[in-house]
Specification:
- The chain is mostly helical and 99 residues long.
- The protein has one helix at 2-98.
- The longest helix is centred in the middle third of the chain and has 97 residues, at 2-98.
- The chain is rod-shaped, with a radius of gyration of 43 Å.
C-alpha cells in the first residue's frame, strides 16, 4: 500500500514537472514568436518610412525641375522683351537718321 502511494506521488510529481517544462517551453516559444513579430513590424515600418522619404525626395526633385524651367522661361521672356526694345530703338534711330 505504502509503495503504491509513493509510486502515485512520484508519477504525479513527474507529471507536474513535465507539465511545468511544457509550460516553460510554450512561454519561450511565445516570447520568440513575439520578438519575431516585433522585428517584422519594425522592418515594415522602416521600409514604409524609406518609401515615404524616397517619394518626398522625388516630389522635391520634380518641384526643383519645374522651378528651373520656370526660371529659364522667365529669362527667355525678359530677353525677348529686351530685344524688342532694342529693335524698337534701332528702328527709331534709323528713321530719325533717314529723315
Amino acid at each position: 500500500m505504502f509503495i503504491s502511494i509513493i509510486i502515485s506521488c512520484y508519477r504525479r510529481l513527474k507529471t507536474e514537472e513535465e507539465s511545468e517544462r511544457e509550460k516553460k517551453r510554450q512561454e519561450k516559444l511565445q516570447r520568440r514568436e513575439e520578438r519575431r513579430h516585433d522585428r517584422e513590424e519594425k522592418r515594415k515600418q522602416k521600409h514604409q518610412e524609406k518609401k515615404e522619404r524616397e517619394e518626398e525626395k522625388k516630389i522635391q526633385m520634380k518641384i526643383e525641375v519645374e522651378e528651373r524651367k520656370f526660371l529659364l522661361a522667365q529669362r527667355k521672356l525678359e530677353s525677348l522683351r529686351l530685344m524688342n526694345e532694342l529693335f524698337a530703338r534701332v528702328k527709331v534711330s534709323r528713321t530719325g537718321i533717314v529723315q
